[in-house]
Write a structure and sequence with these properties.
two-stranded parallel ribbon, alpha/beta
C-alpha cells in the first residue's frame, strides 16, 4: 500500500502552530522551567543545604563561611542547626543535616569526612584561679584539679584528644562534671566548679570571669572536619567543602 503524498502545511496551519493557545504556551514554559530547575539542582547550583555545627565552631567558622556560601552558591537555600557530640552522628545518619562541621571528625561506619583544619587545646579557668597569673600553664599543674569534661566516652574508655594528652603526660584529673556543650562547660568554669580543656575557638565567646591560657610545651589540637553520609549523592557537598576550606584557610 502506498502512502498518501505529504501535503505541505497551509498558511492557516502554520499560523496555528506558531500561535499556540495561552494554556499550551504556559504548559511548555512550565515544563521548560521544570527542566531547567532540575538541571540546576543536579549541577549543584540550586537546592537546600542544611549545615550542622558542634562545639564552639560557629564562632570560628560561620562569620567567614556564611558570606562565602552566599557568594559561591547564591541560589542555594542554606540552613544551620546546632549539634552536640551526642547528636551529630544521628543528625547525619538520619539526613537531618546534609553536612556537619565537627571537632573531631566522626569515626563511624557509613560516615565520610574531610579534615579542613585544627584547633589547639587551651585551658579555661576561673579568673579567680592562681593559674591566671601564668602566661602559659605547665600541664603538670593540672594534676588533681577538677575537670569539666565533654561527652567523649566510648565503650567505657575515654579515647578523646584531651584524655590522650593527659595520659601521655601522666596527669590525672578528677572529672567533676560532663556536659554536652562548650557553653555549659564555660558556665561551670565561671561558677568555680573546675577547669576545662577546650579548643582555642571557644575563647571567642567566653563569658566574663573565664580566662584562657595556652599550655607550656604541649601542642595537642583537635581536628576540624566536614562529615556527611557516605552514600549521600548530593552535588552540593563538593562546593560546600570548597567554601569550608576557604573559610578556614
Amino acid at each position: 500500500m502506498q502512502r498518501a503524498p505529504r501535503v505541505p502545511l497551509g498558511p492557516r496551519t502554520a499560523r496555528a502552530r506558531k500561535h499556540k493557545p495561552p494554556r499550551a504556551r504556559e504548559a511548555l514554559l512550565l515544563a521548560h522551567e521544570g527542566f531547567e530547575a532540575a538541571r540546576a539542582v543536579g549541577s549543584g547550583h540550586r537546592g537546600r543545604l542544611t549545615i550542622g555545627t558542634m562545639f564552639a565552631l560557629p564562632y570560628l567558622v560561620l562569620p567567614r563561611l556564611a558570606p562565602e556560601l552566599k557568594r559561591r552558591l547564591p541560589d542555594v537555600e542554606v540552613r544551620y542547626m546546632e549539634l552536640s557530640a551526642t547528636t551529630s552522628t544521628s543528625a547525619i545518619t538520619n539526613l537531618e543535616a546534609t553536612v556537619a562541621l565537627c571537632m573531631p571528625s566522626i569515626a563511624r561506619e557509613g560516615i565520610a569526612s574531610e579534615r579542613i583544619g585544627t584547633q589547639p587545646l587551651m585551658l579555661a579557668v576561673s579568673a579567680r584561679s592562681a593559674l591566671v597569673r601564668m602566661s602559659t600553664v605547665p600541664i603538670e599543674r593540672l594534676a588533681g584539679l577538677p575537670l569539666i569534661g565533654l561527652p567523649t566516652l566510648e565503650e567505657g574508655v575515654d579515647k578523646s584528644v584531651v584524655a590522650s594528652m593527659l595520659r601521655r603526660n601522666n596527669v590525672t584529673m578528677h572529672i567533676a562534671h560532663r556536659v554536652e556543650t562548650v557553653n555549659s562547660a564555660l558556665a561551670l568554669v565561671m561558677a568555680g566548679e573546675g577547669c576545662a580543656i577546650l579548643p582555642a575557638c571557644a575563647q571567642i565567646g567566653r563569658p566574663p570571669g573565664v580566662v584562657f591560657r595556652r599550655f607550656r610545651n604541649v601542642r595537642d589540637a583537635l581536628e576540624v572536619a566536614v562529615c556527611w553520609r557516605r552514600d549521600l549523592d548530593n552535588p552540593l557537598i563538593e562546593p560546600f567543602l570548597a567554601c569550608a576550606r576557604a573559610a578556614l584557610g
